[in-house]
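Page 47, continued from p. 46.
Same chain as before, 228 aa.
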Amino acid sequence: MTAAPSDDPYLSSVLADAEAGRVNEGELEDLVDKLGTVVGDRVREFRNSLGLTVADLADRIGMSKAMLSKVENNRASASLSTLARLSTALGVPITAFFRGLDEEHEVVLVKSGQGLTISQEHPKPGSDYSLLGMMRGQHQRMEPVLITFTEPIEHFPLYQHGGSELIYMIYGTMEYGCGRSRFVLEAGDVLQFQGDVSHGATQLMRLPIQFLSIKAYGNVNDPVQLSP
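Result:
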C-alpha cells in the first residue's frame, strides 16, 4: 500500500513509518484511534464555526446524519472521499482535519525574574542580559533576551550574526545603529533587521533602559550569539 501524500510533516512521517513496517500493530491501533478523534474534533469545530447543524452538513455532503455523528464522535472512520467532500463543504483543506494529531509541541515558560543571566566577555556596570529561554524547531531557532541598562556606557560593541533580529523597547530612550543608519528608540518602538548587518546600541539617551531582543535563526546550525 502506498501512503497518500500529506502536507502535514507529522502525518507524512507516520504514514511513511507505517508503510515501511516501523509501526507495530498496537501502535497502529492507537494511532488510528487518535486520528479518528482528531478528525472528528476538527469536523465538529469547523461545522460549528459555520453555524451548521449535523443535519445541515450531512445534507451538504450526501451522508446520513447518523453516520456524520459517528464520524464526529470517532465511532466511524471517514474515508478519503468523505474527507474530500467535507473539505469542500467546510471550505478547508483536507490537511486541516489532521491539525492537533501531533500534540507534542515544545513550550518554554520562564517566570518573572528567572531568566538565565548571560555573562559578557567585557561586562559593563549597570548592564544586564537575561536569556528568556531558547526554542529550537526542526529548521529554525529563536532566542529572546531581555536587556537592561541602568548606568551610562561610553563605548558599545557592534554585533553581527545569522538570521534576523527584532527589538522591542519597554522603557527608556536609546539610539540604535544598523549599518550606517541610526534610530532613536522609545517605549513601544519596534526595530527589525537582518543580523548580518553590523548593529548595536550607540547612545543611551534616557536611563533606565530596557528592551527585548528576539533573534530568529533560519538554520539551527547558525552560531549562537547571545548579545544584541
